[in-house]
């Protein structure tokens, strides 16, 4: 037996034992969350790949409930911040407070100094607040006065936004949205799921309380294992071809997309597609990445990184249509 095969078998066994907590989280979340398995899986992928997530969906689809419930399954810090038009950056990151007794300024840290941050309705806050949060997301640190403070690990921002109500909102610029690893679109539950939701939730008592099933160290250990997941050179080239096709459709003979895309995915999209596909393989308890892993996360990684032309918007073409056409044309290795 070759050394490579032995290494792969050892890594597979390590992944099976390391990823056991995923089933525990799913089992705990099912106590309060009905359906929405795709959303839960993507939240886990973002957490494992150390990437922030933007969730978009109409009100009442359990976005906030799912995020807060996920935080409860991990024995870690959690802060929910309701974004409003009158929110200030200091309300988020903290500020300096003058101490009259000592005559000095002391630092009062804001709610962003936690492990899991739920930024509820992020598009309801002004640009200054959005940029303060997005800077913390990118740099993993916050500067208050003349001091810089590192944010705790793991640090994950899960932001929600409502696509329906646009009055009094401040849409996130494309450059800032690009800092989110995944953008998840939440859809309505099925009829059977809706029936279960009604039977379980239409009660005056609060739903069942959740218990922590893992510690933050479990997440950090899993991230180290994900770095060792094998990706063949042909699979890496498949990622590059998909990204390049978002920028230069004519080079890949994707005539349907020519003239519809203003800007394609950035290099950050390439990195995140690689990381998210590794995390997806980890969740499937595999030691290697397949093209199916890439296709599974491609929509969530790319939908907010493709800027359409006015012609595409006039024809009511969505970024999902562009991605679907690309995945249909690029040869699978």
Write a short abstract of this structure.
The chain is of the alpha/beta class and 333 residues long. It is built from 14 helices and eleven strands.
Structure write-up:
By secondary structure, the chain is an alpha/beta fold. It has two domains: 34-199, P-loop containing nucleotide triphosphate hydrolases (Rossmann fold), CATH 3.40.50; 228-329, Orthogonal Bundle (Helicase, Ruva Protein, domain 3), CATH 1.10.8.80. It has 14 helices and eleven strands. The chain has helices at residues 3-18, 20-29, 37-48, 63-72, 89-93, 127-139, 174-177, 191-201, 216-226, 233-247, 267-283, 291-302, 310-314, 319-329, and strands spanning 53-56, 78-82, 94-99, 104-109, 116-120, 141-144, 147-150, 156-161, 182-185, 261-263, 307-308. It has a five-stranded parallel β-sheet. A hairpin with a 2-residue loop joins strand 6 and strand 7 (147-150). Helix 10 (233-247) crosses helix 11 (267-283). It is globular, with a radius of gyration of 21 Å. It starts with a helix and ends with a helix. The mean pLDDT is 85.
Number of domains: 2
Let me know the number of strands: 11
Mean pLDDT, all residues:
85
Helix percent band: 40-55%
Can you tell me the CATH topology of the largest domain? Rossmann fold
- Rg from C-alpha positions? 21 Å
Question: What's the story with the biggest beta sheet?
Answer: 5 strands, parallel
Please tag this protein with its features:
Rossmann fold; about 325 residues; single chain; alpha/beta; Helicase, Ruva Protein, domain 3; 2 domains; two-stranded antiparallel sheet
């Amino acid at each position: 037996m070759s050394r490579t095969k032995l290494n792969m078998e050892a890594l597979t066994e390590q992944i099976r034992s390391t990823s056991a907590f995923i089933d525990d989280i799913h089992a705990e979340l099912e106590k309060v969350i009905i359906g929405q398995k795709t959303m839960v899986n993507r939240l886990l992928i973002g957490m494992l790949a150390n990437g922030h997530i933007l969730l978009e969906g109409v009100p009442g689809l359990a976005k906030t409930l799912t995020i807060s419930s996920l935080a409860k399954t991990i024995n870690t810090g959690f802060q929910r911040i309701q974004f409003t038009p009158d929110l200030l950056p200091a309300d988020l990151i903290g500020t300096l407070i003058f101490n009259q007794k000592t005559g000095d300024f002391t630092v009062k840290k804001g709610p962003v100094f936690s492990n899991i941050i739920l930024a509820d309705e992020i598009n309801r806050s002004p640009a200054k607040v959005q940029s303060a949060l997005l800077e913390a997301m990118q740099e993993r640190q916050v500067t208050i006065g003349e001091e810089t403070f590192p944010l705790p690990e793991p640090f994950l921002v899960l932001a929600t936004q409502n696509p329906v109500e646009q009055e009094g909102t401040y849409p996130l610029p494309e450059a800032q949205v690009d800092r989110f690893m995944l953008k998840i679109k939440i859809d309505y539950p099925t009829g059977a799921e809706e029936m279960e939701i009604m039977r379980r939730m239409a009660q005056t008592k609060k739903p069942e309380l959740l218990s922590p099933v893992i510690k933050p160290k479990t997440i950090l250990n899993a991230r180290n294992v994900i770095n060792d997941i094998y990706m063949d050179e042909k699979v890496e080239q498949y990622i590059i071809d998909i990204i390049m096709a978002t920028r230069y459709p004519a080079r890949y003979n994707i005539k349907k997309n020519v003239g519809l895309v203003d800007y394609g995915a950035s290099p950050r999209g390439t990195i995140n597609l690689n990381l998210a596909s590794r995390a997806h393989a980890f969740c499937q308890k595999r030691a290697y990445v397949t093209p199916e892993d890439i296709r599974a996360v491609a929509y969530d990684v790319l939908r907010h990184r493709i800027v359409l032309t006015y012609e595409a918007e006039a024809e009511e073409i969505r970024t999902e249509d562009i991605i679907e056409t690309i995945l249909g044309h690029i040869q699978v290795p």
